[in-house]
Amino acid sequence: SEFTGQPVEVMSFLDFDRHQHYDGIWACASLLHVPKVELPQAFQRLWRALKPSGVLYVSFKHGSAEREHGGRVFTDTTEVQLRAWIQTLEGVAATDVWLTADQRPDRQEEWVNGLVRKAPLPTPVGKLTTGGSDSFLPKLVHEIAQ
Q: Buried b vs exposed e over 106-122: b needs ≥16 C-beta within 10 Å?
């Protein structure tokens, strides 16, 4: 908050509770600090926080290890496991999962990346009035009568 001049909330992913609040969530190398057993719930909470058509980006170190180092948890994952977590989310419109090399010159690790788009809200058929020969008044009268 002091650096940005904006309010900043600090909480765990399991305490995060927003509903259709964000257009996008960038979780770059952050979910890897959640214990594997808690990751499905963390994914659900982030997904719930996205608006329709919202996008979630995540990245993990590639592998299957879970370890503690320097007082922090590290959970690696594979493409298969990431896709399994994504499959539990409702209303997924598109998914892309890929591997990248670590860009830091002193590192040789690979990263699993995931980009998931939430489905848009369905457009009600026949409810949109566009004008011209598609007059609003008859539709309004019909809806009021219903």
A: eeeeebbbbebbbeeee
